[in-house]
Amino acid sequence: MSLSPAEAAAARPRLSIVLPMLNEAAGIEATLRALAPLRAAGQELIVVDGGSQDDSLARARPLADRVLEGPRGRARQMNAGASCARGEHLLFLHADTRLPPGGAEALGAALDAGAHWGRFDVRIEGRSRWLPVVAALMNRRSRWTGIATGDQGIFLRAETFRELGGFPEQPLMEDIELSRRLLRRGLRPACLRLKVQTAGRRWDERGAWPTILLMWRLRWRYWRGASPEALARAYR
């Protein structure tokens, strides 16, 4: 039996969370279990795998509404998830990032109040004592420039995301480029003070200051016109 238009609208989730992953077996269950209350409240959770070689898929399937398999690449994976999302709003969440309590309500309120997109402040967990400084600088720079990073939990109205054509399918800086395209349309982000919590794996593995300097160099080269492909090679 088909639903009436009113019933179909009522059944539509308010929020679709799109989570790309690649070889995240060690932590994906904890990430998805933390989102279980939102699923229970009727929100949609979509996981998009980019070719994991561990048992990420098996661990994720019982804990998400949809688990998709697609080509590797965070931008491609997020676009694939968004293409089948049913929610009015989209939240793109990394596999090692946790929403704060009340995060879904806060982003919904910001979008309902007139924002087309936004992001959270971020807190980085890891061994280095410099990570609180890194997070504070990220949050301040983002608030000043209007540029958001994927670690900050980017959210948008679904219609805005689709009008924009989604994330540019490039191997690095897709979050920066999405932000730039939104800003060129005159759309400033809602910068929420609530903090998502993300893992400081790359800072722990490479060292805090080497990673900071590397990211500054890559950002500078991107602003100067370097190709995302060249930057991805340098990042790896």
TrEMBL record:
Residues annotated as domain Glycosyltransferase 2-like: 16-133
Subcellular location field: Cell membrane
Signal peptide limits: none
Pfam families: Glycos_transf_2
Gene Ontology CC annotation, any one: plasma membrane
Gene Ontology MF annotations: glycosyltransferase activity
Domain of life: Bacteria
Keyword terms, alphabetized: Cell membrane, Glycosyltransferase, Membrane, Transferase
InterPro entries associated with the record: Glyco_trans_2-like, Nucleotide-diphossugar_trans, Trfase_2_rSAM/seldom_assoc
PANTHER family in the cross-refs: GLYCOSYLTRANSFERASE, GLYCOSYLTRANSFERASE 2-LIKE DOMAIN-CONTAINING PROTEIN
Protein name according to UniProt: TIGR04283 family arsenosugar biosynthesis glycosyltransferase
